[in-house]
Amino acid sequence: MYFDQKDIDAAYDIAEKALQLGLNNSTLFDIQGNCLLQKGDTNGAIQKFQACLEGTDENPFAPDALLGLSMAYFDQSDLKKAKKYFNRAVKAEPLLGQGIDGLPSLEAKGYSFSESKKEYLKKMLEQLK
């Protein structure tokens, strides 16, 4: 969906190796969730994003994980859950509430959105209104 397949597989594998070495942190689960989402494994992505959030929306990767959950549920045509997690993402990062118009400000804060992810978000947000 967003990157070359080899990049997705390599990123997932590196995160998995780090987890196996005991580096158990939310960043790694967020990376894996995004990789699985891009490969179309929405159930696996949901599990990784939920692991990223474990216990709190206060970690720095919460907005991305919540947005990932929203996208995964959107992929599964579960608009109710997609909207629920998008609203939680907006609560964690209010700039997401601006929709596509807020992406430049988010990118200035360090978020990264490929053109294909922007297009996907635009499609999703139009249907979640």
In short, what is this structure?
This protein has 7 helices and no strands. With 129 residues, the chain is mainly α.
What does this structure look like?
With 129 residues, the protein is an all-alpha fold. It has one domain: Tetratricopeptide repeat domain (Serine Threonine Protein Phosphatase 5, Tetratricopeptide repeat, Alpha Horseshoe), CATH 1.25.40.10. It contains seven helices and no strands. Helix 2 runs antiparallel to helix 3. The longest helix has 16 residues. 34% of the residues are buried. The model has no long low-confidence stretch (mean pLDDT 88).
Keywords:
Serine Threonine Protein Phosphatase 5, Tetratricopeptide repeat, 7 helices, 129 residues, mainly alpha, 0% strand
Indicate how many domains the architecture comprises.
Answer: 1
CATH T-level topology: Serine Threonine Protein Phosphatase 5, Tetratricopeptide repeat
Percentage of β-strand residues: under 5%
CATH class: Mainly Alpha
CATH homolog superfamily: Tetratricopeptide repeat domain
